[in-house]
Design goal:
8-stranded parallel β-barrel; 8 strands
């Protein structure tokens, strides 16, 4: 085992994984993350803690992960290269390993111009592919980027992200392949609403044999309001919401309940796509919907695994 994490054990044993996101709070109240951990621990194999999502200042992913652990949930620490140079990234990875965090997700991060500090300087000392490679080197070779040796183990299960709807398709598939070669153990996709387009992407993934080298978790996102449906259908890069789904939300008496229903239906379809090894539920600021979605999709109770 590379990390001994619950997520690794589920995926490597061929079982269908479930992960979800827990948005870190805009403040320092620890009970916010503890409550999310209590809510999600029985329905998810690991819980992502976002890293200043949307380029807005929040509690650190590192701290949020430790609070999830206190609540009995398995954390998945997100790390963006936007905010830290290679020294800080490697330092945080070593600290996370020392404190029992066993999963990490490597991302570029939303551009700072989109958030509440648009004048902030983006670091981008290394990119997400290099971060994956760096963590793999720390884990497998016990060396930092400079080549210096480190003491102790760095047992981390390494994740990356992919957008099945980004153009040009061939270029982004090459990026996925680069992340796999760099050391990604699993991939979480962008939110999926357009099943035919995703199936076509997975066809290309399987043609290249990438599904045999990495575990792909298809992401779903429960839409909460009519406004959210309309905004996502035309304004969120990399997200494609079919017109018929937007109409369903618009015509529903309870848009949030309809969004959850659509989410469960999408999961049922995604479970049957060859090469998909799990589901990632992106319900930031709506985590209370996750247990119901997991049960409705027939993914509860979660399998038992031995402790690390």
């Amino acid at each position: 085992m590379k990390s001994g994490s619950r997520l690794e054990k589920i995926l490597e044993s061929g079982q269908f994984a479930v992960t979800a996101e827990a948005g870190a709070p805009k403040g320092s109240l620890p009970e916010v993350m503890r409550k999310k951990g209590e809510l999600l621990k029985s329905s998810c194999d690991a819980v992502n803690v976002t890293d200043n999502q949307a380029a807005v200042v929040r509690m650190s992913s590192f701290a949020g992960c430790l609070l999830l652990k206190e609540a009995g949930a398995e954390p998945l620490m997100q790390m963006v290269v936007r905010d830290r140079n290679r020294l800080a990234l490697q330092s945080d990875i070593l600290g996370a390993a020392a404190l029992g965090i066993r999963n990490v997700l490597c991302l570029a991060g939303d551009h700072q111009h989109l958030g509440n500090h648009p004048g902030a300087v983006g670091v981008y000392d290394i990119d997400a592919v290099h971060l994956i490679q760096t963590i793999k080197t720390l884990r497998d070779e016990h060396r930092v980027m400079s080549g210096d040796k480190i003491s102790g183990e760095v047992p981390l299960y390494i994740g990356a992200v992919a957008n099945p709807f980004a153009d040009p398709l061939e270029f982004h598939l090459l990026t996925v392949a680069k992340k796999i070669r760099a050391g990604a153990d699993f991939i979480q996709t962008q939110a999926i609403f357009d099943i035919p387009r995703f199936v076509a992407w997975m066809d290309k993934v399987r043609e290249r044999g990438l599904h045999e080298k990495v575990h792909i978790l298809a992401s779903v996102l429960p839409i909460k309001t009519v406004e959210m449906a309309r905004r996502m259908s035309g304004g969120v890069p990399g997200v494609r919401v079919p017109v018929e789904l937007v109409k369903r939300i618009e015509q529903a008496g309870d848009p949030r309940a309809e969004g959850i229903r659509i989410c469960s239906e999408l999961i049922q379809q995604l479970k049957g796509v060859p090469g998909v090894h799990g589901i990632h539920i992106m319900a930031v600021a709506g985590e209370d919907a996750v247990p119901g979605i997991v049960k409705e999709a027939g993914l509860w109770p979660r399998p038992e695994v031995s402790a690390f």
